[in-house]
Each structure stands twice: as structure tokens, then as C-alpha cells.
Specification:
With about 425 residues, the protein is an alpha+beta fold. The protein is built from 16 helices and 14 strands. The protein folds into three domains: about 5-120, Beta-Lactamase; about 130-285, 2-Layer Sandwich (Alpha-Beta Plaits); about 295-430, Four Helix Bundle (Hemerythrin (Met), subunit A) (Up-down Bundle), CATH 1.20.120. The strands form four sheets. The chain has a five-stranded antiparallel beta sheet with strand order 2-1-5-4-3, sandwiched between helices. Strand 7 (about 200-205) and strand 8 (about 205-210) form a beta hairpin.
């Protein structure tokens, strides 16, 4: 013990005071062995390490009381506070020993300095879980955190995929070194747009992902704030200033996916939907929306079984796609844009009235709440129509309402609740 390079010590189980410490404590802690014996444990070992020691001792004592005297060996990663104030990473092996009466009496410990090993393990950890350029978490750590978050039942999450628009021309024109500096500036700006509990990750290239423990409205507010922040110029030096924008896709858990793979795929799809609408915008994931063409795709799952209602739902898709096309030329042909918007809203009003008539005839139990949903949507549509005529309506606000609430959103949520009623009645002809 006196000549060991490791620190060998014994401690009283009742008081947790040291009885003996070998001379090797001096190079490890800066204290002489005799000085250590008179020090309170809290001055030598931080609270987290003391808690580890107490927990392991409790487990060992419990094992001893069960008669498992051979199962008291523990290996603990702890820290020792050096006399000069810094912490030293250590590994300690402890065993519990009894007195002549067979009662637990002392802890025998062997402690060694593992500073170099800890530093090496930390480096390997960072290489495995962090992006070397921006120091942001990488795909592996993102998937790990996402899986952990989804294990918390009842928790809402939002996943945000961000792709930088026009980054490649900057890389090609000014070189990869400038591109790397810009990516670091983007990463820093993203960190300032989110909270400490949010996870910002880089997948590679100019693709980033943010994991948020948020609801739909909160996530969209963060996405909009981030989108606006990235539009501000990035000053590289006194003479050079670079501008980019971002296409941001948002997917929600559990609404858009109940496993990491599906949710990530749908957030990625939403990002491509943003690009398909002209880049530089935020899009919430929409099932059935072609990410390349930016148009709604009719699917068999949209059919409820009532021919006229299905026909009107199809017509709403047609009118929405026509509006999406005319939104691209809104500045050049504002009259056509307003005409399409008004036609879509009028069709929705007509369809809602007929749908309510059919549901009333079938004694639909949720008719009252369904009518309230219709009234809310039509009231919001009227407000947006007024704003559009005044030239004060943004494309993102309009698209999120039309696709996420009025057409696909309403059909895939509120309408879908009456689908079994229609199919159960075997309806095959329009109601009169």
C-alpha cells in the first residue's frame, strides 16, 4: 500500500470518514496523506461523486444483509478535487469488509487517475455524436434523442428540417473555406433562435435539423423566427456580406409519425414541399402533397364512400391546385389569383352546407361540433379573403390555412370521423 502508484484507502461505513490513505494521494490531489485524514469528505469529493459513493455503499450494505458478502465489489467513476481547485477524473474500486462479529465495518478502496483515458473517451464520444465543423450534434445523436423523447408517452414533439437556399453557389464562387465559415455562422444563429432544451443538429452539407418539445403553434412560431433570422445578411468581413434564405419543413409527433424514421421522413418531405413552392418559406408536412410539383395528390384513403361528397372533395383538390399554380404568378396576374381564391372558398362554403345536410339525415352524433368547425373555417376564410384583396396576405399564412386546415387538414381529421358512418350505410348514390 505504501508503495502503490494507485491510492489505497479505507473508510468507516458508519461515518464515511477516512481511516487510512496511502502516500499516492499526494500526486493525485496535492494533499499529503495525513492532511487528507482531517479533511471533510465534501472538500475532497464533489457532491455528485459523493452521491455515487453513498448509493453504491447502500447497495453493497443491502447485498451484505442478504448474505451476499462476495457481491460488494463496485467500480465507480468519480472526481477528486485537487488542492489547487481543479477536478481530477478518477476510477475507484471499492469492496465492503466486516468485523469479527460479521457486521459491515469498513470500505476498502483503490483509486487511480484516469485523466488521459477520460479525455480520450470524450474525444471518441464527440467524434461519434458531434459534427466536427459546427460542433452541433450529428444524425446519430439526433436519432438517439428523438427515440428517447418519443418514449415519453403523451409528449408532443416537433421536428424541423432546414435546408439553406442558394448555399451551393456561394460555395462554388467563394470556396469551401468561406462556405465552412458561413455554416458555422448559421449554426450559431440557429442556437440563438431556440431554447436550451431544444436540439440543433447538422446532418451534413447545408442540412440542419431541430428537435423541439413543442405543439404545432409553438413549433411554427419558432420556425418562422428562425426563417426570418436566416434572411438577415451574414457579414464575413468588412467588405464581404453574404445573403441566403432557408426552406424549412416541420413535422409533428404523433400527428405525422409515431416512430423516428417516419417522422424524419415526413419532416424531410415538408422541407421539399417548401422548396417546391419557390423556396424561402416554412411548410408544415401535408400528406398527399407532391414535394416536387407543390400540388395536392388525391388518394383512395380520402374517399368516404358517398359519391357526391367524394366528388366535392376531389373538386376542392382541383381548385386548391389551381390556386397553387396561380400563386406563383400572383404579382403578374393578381386578378386570376383572387378569382381562384374566391372560387375555392365559395366551393368550401357550398360543400360544407351539403355535407351538414347529409350528416343531419344520418343522425351523425358529432354534427354540432362539425358545424362549429365549418363556421370557424369559413370565418377565417373570410378574414383571409379580405386581407388578400387588400394585398396584405402572405403566401405562407394562406397555404398553411388552406392545406393544413381547410382542405387536407379538415378532411383527414374532422371528416374522417364520419367515414365509417358513410361506408357502413353502403351509400352508392348522391343524396337528394
Amino acid at each position: 500500500a505504501e508503495n502503490s502508484a494507485d491510492v489505497i484507502w479505507t473508510m468507516d461505513t458508519a461515518t464515511l470518514r477516512l481511516r487510512y490513505v496511502s502516500p499516492a494521494i499526494q500526486p493525485l490531489s496535492g494533499y499529503e496523506a495525513l492532511d487528507i485524514l482531517g479533511l471533510p469528505l465534501k472538500l475532497l469529493i464533489p457532491e455528485t461523486s459523493r452521491k455515487q459513493l453513498r448509493d453504491e455503499l447502500s447497495d453493497s450494505l443491502a447485498a451484505w444483509q442478504r448474505g451476499d458478502h462476495e457481491q460488494t465489489r463496485c467500480v465507480i467513476r468519480t472526481q477528486v478535487r485537487h488542492k489547487e481547485g481543479h477536478l481530477v477524473a478518477t476510477e475507484t474500486i471499492t469492496t465492503l469488509h466486516g468485523n469479527e462479529q460479521g457486521q459491515p465495518d469498513a470500505i476498502l478502496g483503490v483509486t487511480r487517475d484516469i485523466t488521459e483515458r477520460a479525455a480520450s473517451e470524450e474525444m471518441m464520444h464527440r467524434l461519434a455524436f458531434y459534427d466536427p465543423l459546427t460542433n452541433l450534434p450529428n444524425r446519430r445523436l439526433l436519432q438517439l434523442r428523438l427515440t428517447e423523447a418519443m418514449a415519453d408517452e403523451g409528449r408532443e414533439l416537433a421536428l424541423m428540417f432546414i435546408d439553406l437556399d442558394h448555399f451551393k453557389p456561394i460555395n462554388d464562387t467563394f470556396g469551401h473555406e468561406t462556405g465552412d465559415v458561413l455554416l458555422n455562422m448559421v449554426a450559431e444563429r440557429m442556437r440563438h433562435c431556440v431554447r436550451e432544451q431544444d436540439l440543433v443538429a447538422r446532418l451534413g452539407g447545408d442540412e440542419f435539423v431541430i428537435l423541439l418539445p413543442d405543439t404545432r403553434d409553438e413549433a411554427l412560431a419558432v420556425a418562422d423566427h428562425l426563417h426570418q433570422s436566416l434572411r438577415h445578411p451574414f457579414r464575413m468581413d468588412e467588405e464581404q456580406e453574404l445573403r441566403i434564405s432557408s426552406s424549412i419543413g416541420v413535422a409533428l409527433y404523433p400527428e405525422h409519425g409515431t416512430d423516428p424514421k417516419t417522422l424524419m421522413h415526413h419532416a424531410d418531405q415538408a422541407m421539399y414541399q417548401a422548396k417546391g413552392r419557390g423556396r424561402g418559406r416554412v411548410c408544415l408536412f401535408t400528406a398527399g402533397l407532391d414535394p416536387e410539383l407543390g400540388s395536392l395528390l388525391w388518394q383512395n384513403s380520402h374517399e368516404c364512400g358517398h359519391p357526391r361528397i367524394d366528388a366535392e372533395h376531389r373538386q376542392l383538390f382541383v381548385l386548391t391546385n389551381r390556386l397553387l399554380e396561380r400563386m406563383k404568378d400572383n404579382c403578374e396576374h393578381p386578378a386570376l389569383y383572387l378569382e381562384s381564391l374566391e372560387g375555392l372558398f365559395e366551393m368550401a362554403r357550398h360543400h360544407f352546407a351539403f355535407e351538414e345536410q347529409v350528416l343531419a339525415e344520418l343522425d351523425y352524433a358529432e354534427l354540432a361540433s362539425h358545424q362549429q368547425d365549418h363556421q370557424r373555417l369559413l370565418h377565417r376564410a373570410s378574414q383571409l379573403m379580405t386581407a388578400a384583396r387588400a394585398g396584405e396576405l402572405g403566401n405562407d399564412e394562406l397555404l398553411n390555412f388552406i392545406i393544413q386546415e381547410l382542405v387536407v387538414g379538415h378532411m383527414s381529421q374532422a371528416d374522417r370521423r364520419y367515414f365509417p358512418l358513410m361506408k357502413g350505410r353502403g351509400l352508392s348514390a348522391p343524396a337528394t
